[in-house]
Here is the input.
Amino acid sequence: MNTHITPLTTPTEARIQDIGSAEILVGIPSYNNADTVGHVVRAVSVGLAKHFPGHRAVLVNSDGGSSDGTPAIVARTVVDFQHLFIGDQQSILHRIITPYHGIPGKGSAFRTIFEIARRLKARACAVVDADLRSISPEWIELLLRPIMEGGYDYVAPYYLRHKYDGTITNSLAYPLTRALYGQRIRQPIGGEFGFSGALAAHYLDQHVWESEVARFGIDIWMTTEAIASGARVCQSFLGAKIHNSKDPAADLSAMLMQVVGALFASMEQHESIWSPREGSQPVPLFGFPYEVGVEPIHVNVERMVSHYRQGLTDLEPIWRRILADDTFTQLRGLQGPSNTDCRIPDELWVQVVYDAATAYHQQVMPREHLLKALTPLYLGRTASFVHATQGLTSTEAEQKIEALCQTFERMKPYLVERWQPQALQPAAPALLHHTTTDAGGEHE
Amino acid sequence: MNDFINQALLEPLKLLGRHMLTVLPNVLAMGIILLGGMFTAWALGSFVERLFRVIGFDHLCNRLGMNAALLRGGVKTDPSRLVGRAIYWTVIVLASIAALGALNLTPINKFAQSLLAYVPHMVTAAVILLAGYFLSNFASQAVLIAAVNAGLPPARLIAACSRWGLQILAGAMALEQLGIAEHIVVVGFGITWGGIVLAGAIAFGLGAADLAKEFLERRLVARSKSSTVDDLRHL
Here is the structure.
């Protein structure tokens, strides 16, 4: 395996020399998160002191050049352990606060965290976003203990979210990942993850750090790469996720391009792994699931439908090159009289996604154009989902998502047929030491 | 009588014969050069055509929208064949110029030299036109997608303007390269472009003042019209 060294700053190198090694590493990528990062650091510190008191641990803040003093807050945040009834804090939590190199984005911040984990020979790692408001010390245990004691390589988060929170996840990332790789990871782009040191080293060795993975594509890439490399994966129930909105400068089409681009690129890389897989298996879930109230979300359906309709008219020549004739004809046939009406059924949405993946693979046009041209389609589908789930409870909305996932799985032969006419030879994953995840119950 | 025959008939014939003997090698050389040029043109054209097919040039052109544009223009030949034919005819023209030069006649030599000196300009102009065409297609597609994603109603108009703007710019540069009405082209292009920008600015200022105000407010001031946006979280 090739080993690629990620450049670190001289003070960071010196700090790593001082620390020497660590068993646990928790990374916090940040960019102008002064409002929330103090709370996140406190939660991490308490979580480590409470649940892993005897382990040598390091907190790494990988910052993208914040101008609001985020790194300074990370450095000076202290926790009064006495008031939290933690008396047996056995080791000091080391902190490394470092800027990252490379393309500005979350992925580049993670790369620096992975590199520090490798240098410190960390056994178990976790990453948590710096914009979290609902993080508690228990999150740290839930993300790390399956690695430390369960023999897992990758822990994905499992949140309670509003039915309109995470629409890219619900309409695309979750159903597609599940149908492709056969693993039901509900939040593949959750933002908080636990992973083994071996998996961190594997991530570092991939040549993806100049692509969409360096930005918002990192989350979906980490999940798909973990499954494809044969890592043992599980989920941990973390409760509600309440966080500040993502980088306001990042517009939807760029965000969608980064996530979907990373997903489609992974499909190209791992086609021999996903193409023969059929159906899906539940992934073990740790933690104690409970119901909790979530923040209501205001949705402007009219605006989304307007975008979709404009796309249908103005982007017709481009969509015709991306989509199969039948798919485009069906989309055309859906136009209703009302301005706020848009009902893209599950089957048609699946066809759209599979056609787009195939067009990406066959490079029918510059890939950036292709991915960005999907934005109105995604908004049309999101509007359809909102229409279909208005007045439904979160559980009922979840059933709709489950139905969509089953449609993705049922129609997978359509993708395989369009992707590559000739049969593919299945290849066994061989990057990590484990075989694929054990099929188990949904809850452990 | 013999003198008359010698002077009036045989001398001109001898003179003609001497002339013919002087020119004949040149004509022969011209024929050889022409034949050699035709063979080279055929061989090189076929080779380039096959090479382009092997490296997937047709597929690349298809992705860039070149094939569709050719079809729209009534050209049903694929791009590899077109390049092969272009090479063929270029070699034929060069061989013809070289063949004419072989005659060693002063006016023809001058003509051939001036034609040869013009060839680099023609090649440069062709490259500029091709690059302009590809760039304008790429840019207009990017502009169209960005405008639709931004929800701008005249998305297609904006994309068409960017396409034609770039193609006109490429055309003006190509004409300048060919030396055709250099100053008129540059001045004409400057006046046209300046006029378009000025007209656009005036039209925007008069007709879309509210839109501009709203845009600047959105950019510079915190969003006030919360009813028009939503707080949907996509990730």
In short: Residues 301-419 of chain A form one domain. Chain A touches chain B at residues 164-169, 189, 191, 216, 219, 245-246, 251-253, 255-256, 259, 297-300, 303, 306-307, 310-311, 314-315, 318, 363-366, 368-369, 372-373, 375-376, 382 (CB under 8 Å). Residues 422-431, 433-444 of chain A have pLDDT under 50 and may be disordered. Strands of chain A lie at 24-30, 57-63, 94-99, 124-127, 154-160, 183-184, 193-196, 233-240, 281-282, 285-286.
